[in-house]
């Protein structure tokens, strides 16, 4: 399924959308194989991908790691209410924390929505009591621990 996405001054054609869809499923696909899928040469595919990267459409290529396989057993989502004047400072501090995997400013009264991963409950408790709760401007924290993952999609699927 393709959507009509475009970046200012950059219109994505059907070939770009197909390239993005294939890369989303397998970012390790070779330029040659990708070219065969979309009917372009390896060099033409590489040029399109480089252009998409330069324009910021593709932010980066990365590996998705199963946390449980490397000893990370606690995954939790947090809603952090922050006094408005401290919102940016708290967000900057949290974005530097290794345990924080994603951080968003959400609608509502100065809410940050955050995901974090921890080796165990003790590590999460130390994060909360030693780092998050003492931050200037943090008003309240609501924490929900993940029980089972049914689907997790990284990046945008076109």
TrEMBL record:
<dbReference type="Pfam" id="PF13404">
    <property type="entry name" value="HTH_AsnC-type"/>
</dbReference>
<dbReference type="InterPro" id="IPR036390">
    <property type="entry name" value="WH_DNA-bd_sf"/>
</dbReference>
<dbReference type="InterPro" id="IPR019885">
    <property type="entry name" value="Tscrpt_reg_HTH_AsnC-type_CS"/>
</dbReference>
<dbReference type="InterPro" id="IPR000485">
    <property type="entry name" value="AsnC-type_HTH_dom"/>
</dbReference>
<protein>
    <submittedName>
        <fullName>AsnC family transcriptional regulator</fullName>
    </submittedName>
</protein>
<dbReference type="Pfam" id="PF01037">
    <property type="entry name" value="AsnC_trans_reg"/>
</dbReference>
<dbReference type="InterPro" id="IPR011008">
    <property type="entry name" value="Dimeric_a/b-barrel"/>
</dbReference>
<dbReference type="InterPro" id="IPR036388">
    <property type="entry name" value="WH-like_DNA-bd_sf"/>
</dbReference>
<dbReference type="InterPro" id="IPR011991">
    <property type="entry name" value="ArsR-like_HTH"/>
</dbReference>
<dbReference type="GO" id="GO:0043200">
    <property type="term" value="P:response to amino acid"/>
</dbReference>
<dbReference type="InterPro" id="IPR019888">
    <property type="entry name" value="Tscrpt_reg_AsnC-like"/>
</dbReference>
<dbReference type="InterPro" id="IPR019887">
    <property type="entry name" value="Tscrpt_reg_AsnC/Lrp_C"/>
</dbReference>
<dbReference type="GO" id="GO:0043565">
    <property type="term" value="F:sequence-specific DNA binding"/>
</dbReference>
<dbReference type="GO" id="GO:0005829">
    <property type="term" value="C:cytosol"/>
</dbReference>
């Amino acid at each position: 399924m393709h959507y009509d996405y475009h970046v200012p001054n950059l219109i994505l054609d059907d070939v770009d959308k197909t390239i993005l869809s294939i890369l989303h499923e397998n970012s390790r696909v070779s330029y040659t194989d990708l070219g065969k899928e979309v009917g372009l040469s390896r060099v033409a595919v590489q040029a399109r991908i480089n252009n998409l990267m330069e324009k910021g459409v593709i932010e980066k290529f990365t590996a998705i790691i199963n946390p449980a396989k490397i000893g990370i057993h606690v995954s939790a989502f947090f809603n952090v209410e922050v006094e408005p004047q401290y919102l940016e400072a708290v967000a900057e501090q949290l974005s530097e924390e290794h345990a924080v995997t994603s951080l968003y400013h959400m609608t509502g009264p100065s809410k940050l929505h955050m995901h974090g991963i921890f080796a165990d409950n003790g590590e999460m408790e130390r994060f909360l009591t030693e780092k998050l709760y003492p931050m200037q401007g943090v008003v309240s924290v609501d924490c929900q621990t993940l029980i089972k993952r049914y689907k997790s999609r990284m990046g945008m699927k076109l």
